[in-house]
Amino acid sequence: MLVVTRFRVPEVESQAFRLAIERAREALAARPGFLAGIVGRNVDDPELWTLTTRWEHVGAYRRALSSYDVKMHAVPLLGRALDEPSAYEVAEPGTDLNTAVARSLG
């Protein structure tokens, strides 16, 4: 699964935010089920940032959010995220997408 979290950060806060988002990525990366993570900044609108992570399954991501280190270093940052859906299924060839049933936690 993919988690795409976007942030709007005033330019004057960009240096501090960059350090905070990297700490958040590192805390998430230490959790079981984490596959990859990348921090990005929009080319045309430098106040728009993203933290994109990939997980084995939704359960791994949800369990990661409850760990102490993630609560300390990522959750406060995630509270600054734009209010929009952030979890996505990976659209692999030949798979069914967005079925209207409860997802397994893994």
TrEMBL record:
Alphabetic keyword roster: Monooxygenase, Oxidoreductase
ABM domain ranges (all copies): 1-90
Membrane-spanning ranges: none
MF terms (GO), sorted A to Z: monooxygenase activity
SUPFAM superfamilies hit by this protein: Dimeric alpha+beta barrel (SSF54909)
Highest rank taxon of the organism: Bacteria
Coiled coil (residue ranges): none
Name by which UniProt lists this protein: Antibiotic biosynthesis monooxygenase
Classification of source organism: Bacteria, Bacillati, Actinomycetota, Actinomycetes, Propionibacteriales
